[in-house]
Amino acid sequence: MMRTYKINLYSLVFAISILFACGSSDSEYEKKVSSPNVVFIYMDDLGYGDVSAYGATEIATPNMDKLAKGGVRFTDGYAPSATCTPSRYAILTGRYPWRNEDAKILPGTAPLIIDTDQLTVPKMFKEKGYHTAVVGKWHLGLGHGNVDWNQKVGPGPNEVGFDYSFIMAATQDRVPTVYLRDGLVQGLDPDDPIKIDYEENFEGEPTGKDNPELLRMKWHHGHNNSIVNGIPRIGFMKGGEKAKWVDEDMADVFLEEAKSYIKSKKDNPFFLYYALQQPHVPRTPHPRFEGKSGMGPRGDVILEADWCIGELMDTLEEEGILENTLVVFTSDNGPVLNDGYYDDAVEKLGNHTPWGPLRGGKYSLFEAGTRVPFITYWKGTIKPKVSEAMVCQMDLLNSLAALVGSEERSEDGENLLEELLGKSEKGRSSLVLEATSRTALRHENWIMIPPYDGPKVNENVNIELGNSKEFQLYDLNQDIGQRQNLAQQQPEKLKELVEEFISIRGEGYVNTEPLELK
Ligand code: NG6
Ligand code: CA
Q1: Is the distance from the beta carbon of residue 171 to the nearest atom of ligand 1 less than 6 Å?
Q2: Options 3.40.50.300, 2.170.8.10, 3.90.870.10, 3.30.1120.10; CATH of 431-515
């Protein structure tokens, strides 16, 4: 009896130690394969048809194409919204932007709209031992309101999960026109403090409206407040002369920041959110790219951004980490030509179609508002393919959490890791799309847009918004350009989508009376 017990004990200890040995080597192995660096390359206003890999013939984007040809190119990849702030909110939190009523295009003085308790992509990575950084456009608000730009500004990116931040606060066309590193305005002279106001000008300061003689870029609509570098902006700014950015250098400045971050962190896993400003207005290509597209500044800054992406990818390769880095390339919303400045975007467009085969553009509930270039690239791990899976930027949090073995999950995201790695084409079945507070539903190959009273076209930007007094129903398989409204012909389908829309969006966002729903 005793003897048997002893033997069993020995074999038990032996078995346990073997288990431990296997366990540790397993987790070592897992750590190696499941802690890749992750880089988001997030464009600003780049359209579905602006990339040659997506069919553009009048402009060449070789570096974006390289990602597309070596990775998964999604034909049905979506930004959560047709404007910037809501999309950025959703890509970082995995929450629908319409759940947060502050997720609207923000002024440069807006308070931070991400709760510091909220789960975010960088927080999820941090919990798994990653170092995290944002470089580029923020536009999610800073501080609690009434920010003093001459002190450390917060809460901001560093309080919602980023270990390091180098950002512009809002947009290139909004003040303050300065960079902030970890909350501190760069190059600030304490004797020339910065003051910002979005309501009133500071006495004696020139404006785009009153001083056209000082302008080198003319405003078309909006954009007639303070003048910085000869470009009229949204909002009023005084002081901070030495801290002001040089618009033409912005692409290089962000790129250098991104590159040096990668170089400094190559030995531990990192998450980099590289948010480029192109081709948002004002379009100010570096002289190296001026005139290169033949399409005016909008085309030139797309070439500039493409070059930046090439440089970034070269850096990953030179540092020997290309095969250990997953890159996600996409855009925050669809394209716009004239977004408030006369810059030849309309006049020199030629045969280029920034929206591709889609209808609408930025601000629109039609497809071109939210369907954007969307590519995942991971050399040696992802096999090149074109995928028709429906994916949304909001899904990145849950999918990447699954990749790195995190239990964190967001409210609205789905785990589409298999799709992002090109192993499945299933994708989402439903997605609520947003455009300036209006919402619609994509379900499988169908789109349902509830009736909206607003104007059919935003005359300033010349974009169809998707508004109609009638229900709209489109079959994207037959009609990707959304020309044939099938709402009358397909009442059952319409009802099905309206019910699905209500189940996600909630009651009160669509008038169901005409449909006689149960
Ligand atoms: C709009 C601006 C537009 C752009 C947009 C934000 C006017 C008239 N238009 O209000 O130029 O800045 O906001 O773009 O001011 S986004 O890509 O950041 O959402
Ligand atoms: Ca944008």
Answers
A1: yes
A2: 3.30.1120.10
